[in-house]
Amino acid sequence: MTESLSDNRALDSRALDSRGIATRFAALSHPARIEILKHLSASSCCSCREVVDHLDLAQSTVSQHLKILVEAGLVRFEADRQRSRYAVDRATLAEVSASLAALVDSCCGKSMKES
User: Fold this and answer.
1) Is residue 67's pLDDT more than 80?
2) Where are the strands (E) in 13-94, listed by range?
3) How far apart are CA 37 and CA 86, in angstroms?
4) Which distant-in-sequence residues (6+ apart) come within 8 Å of 51 by Cβ?
5) pTM of the entire predicted model
């Protein structure tokens, strides 16, 4: 019975990790969010207005995309007086990169090494 419980915990942990990775990949699945990340990466932080001006999108659209990026942990949010400031969470983005590399390696690594 103990082995079964620990096996279930390991499966739950992998499932949660997979869900977290999928959430981050989903946040990256829209071209506007990719452009927002690129823009934010070029500076230490930006306001929503600065992103709106750069992308020529409606403020409400940019706000919604930023919300998705923040919820996925890819962007950090900080209230700064009357303006909100956003910055790329570089550590989380690096984790996404490592997760993708590990996934590709686990799926294709053996066949790629044999070629």
Assistant:
1) yes
2) 46-47, 75-80, 83-88
3) 10
4) 36, 39, 40, 62, 66, 86
5) 0.78
Give yes or no for residue 6 having a pLDDT over 50.
Answer: no
Distance CA 82, CA 104 (A): 43
| Contact (Cβ atoms closer than 8 angstroms) between residue 80 and residue 69 | no
User: What is the spatial distance between Cα 5 and Cα 39, in angstroms, rounded to a whole number?
Assistant: 46
Q: How far is it, in rounded angstroms, from Cα 27 to Cα 84?
A: 20
Asked if pLDDT for residue 11 goes beyond 80, the answer is: no
Over residues 50-71, the mean pLDDT reads: 94
Report pLDDT for 105. 87
Spatial strand order of the sheet with 46-47 comes to 46-47, 83-88, 75-80
